[in-house]
Amino acid sequence: MKIGFLGPKATFTDIAVREMFPKEESVPYATIPDCFDALSEDEIELAVVPLENALEGSVNITLDYLVHEVDLPIIAELTCPIRQHFMVHPENLDSWKETERIYSHSHAIAQCHKFLHKELKGIPYTNTTSTAAAAQFIKEHPDMKAGAIANELAAKEYGLSIVRKDVHDIHYNHTRFIVLSKNEMPLSEDGSSFKGYKTTVMITLPSDRAGALHQVLSAFAWRRLNLSKIESRPMKTGLGNYFFIIDIDMKQDEVLIPGVVAELEALDCKVKILGSYPYYQLGLEISKLNTYL
Amino acid sequence: MKIGFLGPKATFTDIAVREMFPKEESVPYATIPDCFDALSEDEIELAVVPLENALEGSVNITLDYLVHEVDLPIIAELTCPIRQHFMVHPENLDSWKETERIYSHSHAIAQCHKFLHKELKGIPYTNTTSTAAAAQFIKEHPDMKAGAIANELAAKEYGLSIVRKDVHDIHYNHTRFIVLSKNEMPLSEDGSSFKGYKTTVMITLPSDRAGALHQVLSAFAWRRLNLSKIESRPMKTGLGNYFFIIDIDMKQDEVLIPGVVAELEALDCKVKILGSYPYYQLGLEISKLNTYL
Fold first, then answer.
1. CA B273 to CA A183: how far, in whole Å?
2. Where is this site: Essential for prephenate dehydratase activity (chains A, B) (predicted)?
3. Per residue in A116-147, is it b (16+ CB within 10 Å) or e — as a string?
4. Is residue B292 part of a domain?
5. Mind telling me how many Å the CA of A94 is from chain B's nearest CA?
6. Are residues B116 and B259 in the same domain?
7. How far is the first Cα of chain A from the last one, in angstroms, to the nearest whole number?
8. pLDDT per position in chain A (293 positions), as tens?
9. What is the distance between the alpha carbons of residues B4 and B27, in angstroms, rounded to a whole number?
10. Which stretches within chain A are classed as H helix?
């Protein structure tokens, strides 16, 4: 099975793919639409792209493609903790406090603001296109007094030395990825990473009016369906119109969810089920992952 | 007055600042936390950062800082359309169809997927750290058969020739920016860009249970308060707990909004008003902006 993911290699998306699908071939793509296209055109059987809180790739592009451009169901969700480390070339291990320039993706630099402010105050940054690119640059420039902020996989793949672990400001920070496929694919319910099922629906209201969302949520509330996420997004037809993405904390059934859909459609809402799928909480045990850069 | 914004120069944030505050001095900062810090430490009087749908800067970092790290009220919101253009060095104007490599930020490349797929199919990309950096690279390499995807300000500032306008896939795509300040600052209600007032509140539910959000929305619905945005975000204390960011379509008053807050607090919700402020729809008339790169 061939899996496409938002590259480059050694990013968090890559980590999620290696952990979830350790035995499969995986191929990095440059952009999120490239991943969708490759799946539509059968170059790959699964696509893994970030959905929320991602360092790499614009999450809104994923949502917009799911909603407006393609009809590819979500077959799984993967959640990974975001852990950033400060690393240098092994030749500079002892002198890392003399670092004169820090390389990383601008979002990673922002995420490690407190560490940088405290331990490397005033040292200039150079932005790179990914944290993996920063690690690669450090590997290729042992002569420079430079360090990178990147993940553990990047340190391993590029042979760098981590001098400070977990330098990100906010712990419990996670990225959610979704797995898309044209075909149903039963995924394992064994193992500690499997956490349950959810169903994602997109709801478009008939018109923008006070209390409309409240009415929509009534259909879920009186059935005691728990919602783990709700997000409003502007429609692409102009300002002032919104649709909602709602995650229901259960697998699609034959009574409750169809009942919600029928009720909302009777209220002139448009409802589309984007997927009903298992979700997994991955642990990022880098040492156990295959590496093949 | 000195205004800090998420840089570098010639980005969409820069365009928004120049259009909204044409006569003020503005200073680019490398990251969103740097903008917040500069404001906290009185280096600047206003900070402008992206809140939603941004190419540059992680929007979640803005929300997380607003909610967890600082107590800086929102004093205005600016909405700008996102327009991307394909541009080359003027020396390569006639031969632009022979472009051998495309430079841009990975999100901009993703946003212009259809144009690239149709008119420049198979041409490789190089990611840059911003669309402005791509434009600068093209300016410095007239000898290369290369093009950039960037905004009109970048074309103007770096003297490039736009050969295809509006090459982004999805029209009506906008970025929302917020303006933060320690002090109240009355902004103009004149002019066509002023669109009204909104109030942003953060609500934390007492526990994660079915129907809790529905109950919260009741407090708004029976008062006929229109909500233009709702978003759930995980708390930083672990998975499974959520807070909500809600935009109410009105200026803070002395009766309705305080009534909602009192009712929600009686239900053991935590409520924080992040700001009550005017919002503006900017038009991006680049030709009228001051340029000073």
1. 46
2. 175
3. beebbeeeebbbbbbbbbbbbbbbeeeebbbb
4. no
5. 28
6. no
7. 19
8. 999 998 888 988 999 999 999 999 999 998 888 899 999 999 999 999 988 766 655 677 788 888 877 889 999 999 988 899 999 999 999 999 999 999 998 888 988 989 998 999 989 998 888 899 999 999 999 999 999 999 999 999 999 999 999 999 877 778 889 999 998 888 888 888 999 999 999 998 876 566 778 888 899 988 989 888 888 877 665 545 678 889 999 999 999 999 999 999 998 899 999 999 999 999 755 555 544 43
9. 5
10. 12-20, 32-40, 59-64, 106-111, 113-119, 131-140, 152-157, 212-221, 256-266
The three-class DSSP label of residue A224 is: coil
Q: Which of B64, B129, B211 sits opposite A128 (nearest CB)?
A: B129
Chain B residues close to A222, C-beta within 8 Å: 211
Q: Are residues A2 and A70 in the same domain?
A: yes
**CATH of residue B25:** 3.40.190.10
Where in the sequence is the domain holding A163, given as residue range(s)? 85-171
The residue count of chain B comes to 293
Q: What's the CATH number where B256 sits?
A: 3.30.70.260
B278: preceding bond cis by omega (within 30 degrees): no
Across the interface, do A210 and B224 touch by the CB < 8 Å criterion?
Answer: yes
Point out the residue among A32, A217, A229 whose CB comes nearest to the CB of B110: A32
CB atoms within 10 A of CB A211: 17
Are residues A271 and A230 part of one domain? yes
B27 and B41 both lie in a single domain: yes
- The residue among B216, B178, B173, B184 whose CA lies nearest residue B198 is B178
Q: Do A33 and B226 touch (CB under 8 A)?
A: no
The answer to whether residue A284 is domain-embedded is no
- Please indicate, yes or no, if residue B288 is contained in any of the structural domains: no
Which residues from chain A sit within 8 angstroms of residue B33, using beta carbons? Answer: 110, 113, 169
Q: Give the CA radius of gyration of chain B.
A: 21
Q: Which amino acid is located at B31 in the chain? A: T
A252 C-beta neighbours (distance < 10 Å), count: 17
Whether residue A238 and residue B109 make contact (CB cut-off 8 A), yes or no, is no
Q: Last residue of some domain: B125, B150, B183?
A: B183
pLDDT digits (tens, 9 = 90+) for B199-210: 999 998 876 566
CB contact under 8 A, B228 and A210: no
In a domain, A37, yes or no: yes
CA distance B250 to B277: 9
Q: B238, A211: Cβ pair inside 8 Å?
A: no
Residue of A nearest to B241 (CA): A228
Q: How many domains does chain A fold into?
A: 3
